[in-house]
Amino acid sequence: MTQKDLNESVAYLQEKGFLKPEIGIVLGTGLGKLAGEIQNPVTAYYNHIPFFPLATVEFHSGKLIYGEIEGRKVVVMQGRFHLYEGYGLTGVTYPVRVMHELGIKRLLISNAGGAINLQFKKGEIMLIEDHINLQGGSPLAFKNVAEFGERFVDMSEPYDVSMRKMLEDIAAKNNIVLRKGVYASVAGPQLETKAEYRYLKIIGADAVGMSTVPEVIVANHLKLPVVAVSVLTDECDPDNLAPVNVADIIATAARAEPNMILLFKRLIKQLNL
């Protein structure tokens, strides 16, 4: 990745009309309907954007959408990238850098995750307070990283405290169950064994998934305030573990999605940029 690559990606999007977005949003597996809330949308397909990776997961549509939500200019990733698709972590996080270059001041992230904490139930939403990176690498581990920011990035508080508090308040006012916890990010695409679920619980994870942490690391590298939520699509009980049902995971995400959309829309409306 070079600055020239970023400049070409940004120039293409600006020519399409992606002008001065304030907020970037990354939508997770089965969570694409927020895009339907965008007013005056302008769409750019990933395969048309210079140097952009291509989404290869069937639940991810692969387009960047610019427009307005609650009167704010947003750019929304409908379809994200994962390590398990064969991309390096620099490629997975390239869109975050592009959105930052376009001008976003805040980043909102969603994902579908499994509940390790068995007090949490599928269909609930977890506000991520901290994370554990189990992906085996860093999106900052490349030779010329210092051209884009400090090499050694502080991660003592990776998720913006003020936006977290706002989401908690919004959830309380709208009777939405909003759990709080630690998200463990693994490489995937295989799901975990019983022993791995036990391990994740021992090390302090409340939920597990295959995304989000690389984007959050890069957001912190860019000093871009970020907040993230997990829609809990299954319960990972090693003592009662059933074979994975992907259709059920997607259906659970769809049922929980209206609450996630409400949380994000109200947050967007309240943000003081």
Task: Give the tags.
273 residues, alpha/beta, Rossmann fold, five-stranded mixed barrel, 7 helices, 9 strands, globular
Task: Describe this entry's structure for a reader.
With 273 residues, the protein is of the alpha/beta class. The chain has one domain (3-270): Rossmann fold, CATH 3.40.50. The chain contains seven helices and nine strands, in the order αββββααββαβαβαβα. A five-stranded mixed beta barrel has the order 5-8-7-6-9. Helix 1 (3-16) packs across helix 3 (94-102) and helix 4 packs across helix 7 (246-270). The longest helix is centred in the last third of the chain and has 25 residues, at 246-270. The protein is globular, with a radius of gyration of 18 Å. The model has no long low-confidence stretch (mean pLDDT 94). Keywords: Glycosyltransferase, Transferase. The purine nucleoside phosphorylases catalyze the phosphorolytic breakdown of the N-glycosidic bond in the beta-(deoxy)ribonucleoside molecules, with the formation of the corresponding free purine bases and pentose-1-phosphate. Its EC number is 2.4.2.1. Belongs to the PNP/MTAP phosphorylase family.
